Every structure is written in structure tokens, then in C-alpha cells.
Amino acid sequence: MDLSDSIPDLENLSLKVKQEKQKVLKVSKKSNSNKSNGSGGLPVGSNRTQSTAGNKRRWDENIGNSSNSKRIREHGESNEKPNWKEYKQEKKAIKVERKKSDKGAEEYDIVQSSKEIWEDLRRKDCSAERKLNLSAALYELIKGNLTKFMNTHDMSRVIETLMGTGTVQMREEVLQTFKSNPEKIYEKYSHFVALKLLRHANTSQRKQFCEIYYSLTSSLAAREYSRDVLEIMFEQAQNERHRLKLLQHMYGNAYYETWLKINNNPSDLTLKAHIQAKPSARKKIMEHLEAFIGKLVDKNMPIGYHAFHGIIQQYLSVSTPEESERIIERAKLREELYNISQTKAGANVAMQVFWNTSAKDRKSILKNFGSVSELACNQYGHVVLLAIIDSLDDTVLLKKVSL
Asked: pTM score, two decimals?
């Protein structure tokens, strides 16, 4: 026997070992690539999207089962599809019954009938004669429930329309409602009724409405909804005395105790006349006014409102330079000079602010000024332009602003 036949071929053996190592390396590389591709270490050949699709299918089946169970509970175990039209009618009937139980059947019927009349009344093609007939029918329905309906989202709109299409007697009824319930003016929807009443009322009714709220003007100015009504009262004021009368109760208790309580109808209603007559009351009145104007600023009273301009004008007419500077800074009047120049009182305030400010501040005011052409055509704004031309010595800047 030859010894070489029993000894294994070393070269072939080493080749087989190398081949096995290469196979192992290929398998490990493939598994690592699957991990990096987002398969999460799943076995080779598995697919994550298939697993996600399976989960989604099982989720849809669960949802279907739950909807089926709900349908079975409501319509029985029949395999037939429910009649959705009947189903919706049933739901609507349940909703109506719930509203009737909440409001009462009688009130619910009044509201529904009023809305039906209102839909015809607000149409553009409704004739004048038909409007009068519909307004009379609508008034008969709601006249006993004005106080209740005035601050509801739907019925307040109905009453607003009635103010425009109804008679003087109907507006008088709403006026009497505000007289017996003056707090209604602070409510979200009731104040819209008050705005409509002032727009369509006659002179006598407007005067009566203002007399209800003369003593409440400070609270009207400080509230979100009622300040809009106060603004209309200022716009519709017949003369300057009427506007000053609306401002009286904003001056505080010191003014009332030393002036209004003694003389309810003074000949001169300006704050300057009162302080000249009662100089001892000046300190308390000025402290109150400064705090009150700050309160209006904090409550975001619109800068263009007549009442805001009027109260600042009265304050600046009797203030010292230090007091004027504090209120100008507090109300940011320099930044809003253009916006406050649109009313008579605002134009007077704007001129005082511009005259009593430094040359540096005047330049910054004019650089941020609005349209000069619009202000020049305004009834009161053109006076502010004349004051600017009169007091500004920088001709180059004036030319830039005017052009």
C-alpha cells in the first residue's frame, strides 16, 4: 500500500475551508443590509409592508365589525341596509323634541314661526306693503318675549330686521325694554338690537335712549359690546353740548359731588370750566381721568372712537406739561396721530400733541404719517395739516411728506 494514498490532499482541504468562509460572510452581509433597509432584522425574504398591510386589514375589519354592531343595535339583526332617509328624519324628530323640552313647546313654536316670517321679510323682492303685513304678524308673535329673545343668536337677528321694517310703535316697545332692562346693552347679541334701534329710531326716541345711559357712559366705554353703542350715540349727537353731556360721568365721583349733584344742568359743560370754578377738585378728577384713560387703553378701545378722543381732549385742556406727556405716552398718541385726526375732538388732540412735542419726535411722527392727500380732504384732518405746516421748520422733510 502506498503511503501517499492515505494522506489527504491538503490543498483541496484548504480550498473547501475558504469556500465555506465566503458563504458565511455573504449570509451575514445580507442580513446586515436588511436591517439597514428598515426590515428590522426580519428573516431574509420577509416584507414589512406586507405586515403593515395585514395590520391595516385587521383594523378595517374591527371598524367594520363595530359599525355593524351599532347598526344591529339600532335596526335589528337584519342583513338589509337601513333606510338612511328615515333614519335622518328620526334623528331630526328627536332633536326637535329635545328643543321643545328645553325651551317649552309654546316658545319653540313661536321661534319657528318667527323665523319662517323673517325669511320672507328679509327677501329683496318683498314689496313694501307685504313687509308691513309681515312685520305686524311678526310683532304679534314676539311682543311678549322681547326681553328673553333679545340676547339669543337667532331671534336677535329677527328683532334687528323688525327695527328696520316695523313701525314707530314697534321701536317704542323695544326702547321701553331697554329702559326697564338697561343691562341688556352689555350683552353680546342685545347690543346689536340697540345699534339697529338707534339707526332707525326718530329724534325723540334717540333722545330717550341716551337719557337712559347718560349716567352709565363710563361703564359703556369700558365694555367690549356696549362701547359700539356709545360710539353711535356720539356720532348721532345733535350738537357739541350733547357730546359733552355724554362725557360728564366719565370724570369721576369728584366731578359728580362738586358739580353735577349741585347743578344738574350747568351752562358750560367743559371740564375746564368746572375746574376753574372748583379748583380744589382738580387733583382727584385728574387722577381719576388718567387711570380711566389707561383702563380704556388696556381694554383695547379702538383709537378711532369719538368717546376716546373726547375724553383725552378734555384731559389735555386742563393738564400740566408733565401730565400731558404721561397720557400721550400711555395712549401712544404720537404713533396714532394720523388715525385720531379724523374727528373734531381727535383733530384738536392731534394738534396739541404735535405742538407740545420735540423736534425729534415731530420728525419721527411725519416719517410714519399716512396719506396726506386723504387727510387734506378730510373735514377735520386738513386742520391738522395746517398745524403741521405752521409749526415745522424742516422744509426738506415737509416737502417729502407733502409729496
From this structure: 0.72
